[in-house]
Design a protein that fits this description.
The chain has helices at 7-20, 41-47, 51-68, 91-102, 131-134, 153-165, 187-201, 228-240; strands spanning 78-83, 108-113, 139-145, 175-182, 211-215. It has 244 residues and is of the alpha/beta class. A five-stranded parallel beta sheet has the order 2-1-3-4-5, with helices on both faces. Helix 1 packs across helix 7. The protein is globular, with a radius of gyration of 19 Å.
Length: 244
């Protein structure tokens, strides 16, 4: 970018547009260069290079990962579904459960609710507590109702908490999927936030058409949405391609 603004915003827009057209992205596919390249100064210090050299080094690293990149396959894929919604009333949870029901029998699935707000700040344990949790799944399915054009506070807390995990365990071999439901509009804003946090930043793979987006306001109304059954089946079929 020519200045210090809009580079990440534009990247998220481009990635979502390309993804919905069928493109996959490896984890951390963005090498960001702000106008001053000041955003390279921390890595430059670690690499003992200039800011410009560090920027070129990051691009070479990404090019190498792109050349080696292959979508992983699993004989018995493990899918972790995460949400922070009220199961009894949530259109988003209903969609997630419908997707799980449509998956091949080879899938192992687990659902975790973050609704109780039990995500705590880092306790300074030298990153010994978090890594075992990252081994529990091959893919993550985030259920994201649109709260004021953003994910819920509990999901945002999870994004922030994962920063500590990545010190010891990356997510380069794990898929990211999402379901976003908006009462009025703006599902694309939340989808960009999800991919920005978990793919561009947290290294998860973004498979083609990673997100199911739907507009529904009243409880249960999503079940009557036009074409919802076909959308659910198509989305589950895309997840099913993880199988080896």
């Amino acid at each position: 970018g020519a200045g210090e603004r809009d580079t990440k915003q534009l990247a998220r827009q481009l990635v979502l547009t390309a993804n919905l057209a069928g493109c996959a992205f490896p984890g951390k596919p963005l090498v960001e260069g702000t106008g001053s390249l000041y955003n390279q100064h921390i890595q430059a210090g670690l690499l003992h290079l200039s800011w410009e050299q560090t920027y070129a080094h990051q691009m070479a690293q990404l090019a190498g990962r792109l050349l080696r990149f292959r979508l992983p396959r699993f004989e018995r894929p493990k899918l972790l579904m995460l949400h922070a919604s009220d199961n009894r009333r949530s259109n988003t949870v209903w969609l997630g459960e419908q997707v799980l029901q449509r998956l091949p029998s080879t899938f192992e699935t687990k659902t975790i609710s973050l609704q109780n707000g039990s995500i705590h700040d880092c306790r300074g344990c030298s990153y010994e507590a978090c890594p075992p949790f990252s081994a529990q799944s091959d893919a993550m399915l985030f259920l994201c109702p649109n709260y004021n054009d953003a994910v819920s506070a509990n999901l945002m807390a999870l994004f922030n908490r994962l920063t500590n995990l990545l010190v010891r365990q990356d997510l380069y071999e794990k898929y990211l999927y999402g379901i976003v439901v908006s009462g009025y509009s703006g599902s694309d804003i939340v989808a960009r936030q999800l991919l920005g946090a978990m793919c561009l930043n947290k290294t998860a793979i973004l498979p083609p058409k990673f997100c199911l987006m739907q507009t529904a306001h009243d409880p249960g109304s999503v079940q009557k949405a036009d074409g919802i059954d076909a959308q659910l089946s198509a989305f589950a079929a895309r997840l099913g391609r993880m199988q080896g």
